[in-house]
Target: Integrase
Amino acid sequence: MPRTRKNKEDNWMPPRVYRGRSAFEWHPANGGSIRLCSLDAKQSEVWQQYEQAVAEYEKQETTNGLIQRFFGSADFRELSRTTQSDYRKYANKIIPVFGKMLPSTIQPVHIRKYMDIRGEKSKVQANREKAFFSRVFRWAFERGLVEKNPCQGVRQFKEKQRDVYISDDEYEAVYEHACPVIRAAMEISYRCAARQGDVLALTKSELREEGIYIQQGKTGVKQIKEWSAELHKAVKECDEAFGNNSIFVIHQKSGSRFTRDGFNTRWRKARALAREATGLALNFTFHDLKAKGISDYEGSSKEKQAFSGHKTERQVATYDRRIKVVKTISKANASEKND
Model:
């Protein structure tokens, strides 16, 4: 039964239709507003425009439908497995808020409000989810499915650059309490400055005579990391524990590849055991192992760049986190200068 309006003279109006500044407006339950006709229109005209608007609205695709279309697109299929997984997680946050709305009704102010509320819990995740949503709208805009990208012009939160450096003691603490899977992955990531996704995707066909062939999933850079005794040991870890029954270097007992979530469960367990045994905080991520590798690599910034596979020295600088030891001024230095 329709709710009685405050102004009894408006009881004739269709559900969720209100007087705007210059026109009658219908406000769908899923958000937004649709102009019907001017305020001087007859009641019959308002009802006619309302019924037409409802019919057109029900034909349109919701934001959830748009996101699902993106997930079925060639653009999405060409993304790395890790990025696909991330996007689906971001969608699980976006859809409950925007899923039932029409894409055309979403405005920058709605994105800003979402960011502010989500940012109270995690500014980083708010940024990632907004970037994903913008990617969907950009894809849709290029195909004529939407007329604008409401995420454009909405500022992201400023993120503090990570500066965590894993000490040798911290590394050894986790390594000693880890299962063979984690130990092997840690060594490959650290000694090759490789991302987690690239380590988990590594197949035995990429173990060359000269070293380990790695094509970075993020940058596409191709390298062969020369063998060392530690790397030879690392690539045998899983096979020695689970059997030589997989095409992957890092694999489960069944021989199948680890998902990121499954791997991270083991990583968190190893870190928790090490934390309990040593009392160390161990507040670092698996991705910080790549930074430790670059930081510990002996050489100039150019040489570190060649080792890491980054395109610029500036990118390398964000991973080079070891605190430098510099000389200080001594009395002897000062007296020599005065002489």
Summary: The chain has a mean pLDDT of 89. The CA atoms of residues 245 and 255 lie 5 Å apart. The radius of gyration is 28 Å.
